[in-house]
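Hey, I'm writing a tutorial for new members on how sequence and structure tokens pair up, and I'd like a real worked example in the thread rather than a made-up one. If someone can provide the structure for the chain below, I'll link this post from the tutorial.
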Amino acid sequence: MRRAYFDRFIIFLMALLIVFVLFLQISTTQSTEKLKNEEIQRAEQYASKIAKLIQIRTQNSLEITLKEHPEVRRHLNETLHAFLTKQYQYIFVLQKDEKGKYRFLLDASEDEPEEYQSIFFPKSEMFDKVYAFQKMQIIEQHEGVEEVWLSLVYPILRENKTEALLVLDLSESYGEHLNNFNSPLMRVVWMMQVLLILSILLLIYLVYSYSKLRKILLFDSLTSTHTKVFLEEFFNRNEVDSYNAILIDMDEFAQINNKYGYTSGNLVIKEFTETMMNVLSLNSKVIRTAGTEFLVIVPKDDSNFETLAKKLFTTLQEKKYLLKNEVFTQSVSMSAMIIPEGNVSIHDVQRILDVKLLEIKSKGKNALGLLGLDHFNQMKYGNMDYIKEALEEERLVCIYQPIIDTKTKKIVKYEALVRLIDKENGEKFISPAHFMDVIKGTSQYIKMSKLVLKQVFTVLHQYPEIEISVNLDLDDLYNADMMKLITQKLYRNKMIANRLTFEILEHNEISDYGQVALIFQQLKTFGSKIAIDDFGSGYANYVYLIKLDVDILKIDGSLIQELLHDTERTKVMLTSIKHLAEIYQYEVVAEFVSSKEIYEIVKALEIEYVQGYYLGEPKPLEVYMGTERN
């Protein structure tokens, strides 16, 4: 999981926990309040029943009945006493006299009950409001009234007039009981709150510590430039092809350390970095990749990159440093690259810049090397690790160029041409010009040949009506492993081997024609044909016709191209090759037929077969087979 997503997850989790704790606390509080309200409603119903009982027992007048009939008063006190429970601490009845003083009419207390008509001093104005508005009121615990949680004041009415007030005091212990009803859950909530607060404090500390550590990881302490860690993070968020890159190294810097000491050397590095950053824009990023090596990332829309690279190189070269009363300049080696569009890895960019920088240093240092798209492809696709990975993943394909019969204008054969498939762009093919010389003579070359033969034989099986030719370097014939591979393939596919032609390429003169003739004989055992490629130039000359048993001559493309420049002489040369081929019964193929003009001349010379971009570009075989079927 990326760090940004992990941070968001932690924040989301903490927020969720806070919401949960708040929800739990509010729910618990609401539950407790609901419980209290339900108890108050029950107390109101309780008071209503007691008031009705008193009204029934006192008939027409509460005051007169209680005054004239002490036995009724005593009986009602006893009755009210029976209503006392754990919930109700006190029950009594008050009446306001003519002077507005409240006096006890009834008191259910068992211990020291108040005397009849004794004065009561209320602590709240609510008593008067109940008397006046004839509506029950709840009064919070009175100051100075012990063991009382709250009082319920209920009006006793007769003929729509307030005759007295019935007071029910709910006990403090019962109030505590209600408060403590959800106390276990509340304790859990409080513990969670404490834990949450501690977690938040710990998180704040970790964020602070991480920010300090991150600053150490992302910024170089000496130069205040970025580090390699920053480079990785930066291109996790940004596209590589939106930038260009420069790699800079200070030449022979060890001499400064040895002469002036490491402290002075660090001062030079700091000045060097400041000079570099003064030239660059604020949008550029400078990464210290090694001791005196810096990678500069420049946005493509920032400025003219080539001009910037040259200005930076000149400025750093001309920068003067003062150490111990000595003034000197510091030479630098630089490689700069315009990064192509597409899926490009910053590691590939660094590797290519490293290779170019090493080349500059090997040629004397103190120079600037600018790399364009061609250099990028050449270095990227020519890297052994890249080629090895491509072959291991079988990112190899054969494309096919048709060979045309000039008389019938039909395709008689296809030449298989190998290409690697670009890792980032699966529709892009990589020419062997980038990688063939790199892998020649290595195990990767054998691996490539296996993949090519596998694809070619698959196609021969799939399309029984076609013939295919494949290129085979003369040096491959001397390689025991390669010959073993080829002969095994021919033996296992002997029924279709007669539709396969080996085009022999060479880069060196044949030293032992007898050995080569024997190898040709092995290849032709199962009916395969031998074609001499690039005949008429280089080492492929007329001696081949005398000493080797071949089937096809492919005239070198440079001779065919001369038809446009020295037509008559070239015609004579091509005519002589054709006549010799007729004598030895060789087939002749003219390569590099790139225009209609060349095609018409070759056709007029009665050369049987032609091949070139005018007649068909190298493409996947399915394209041509589909065309033919149509």
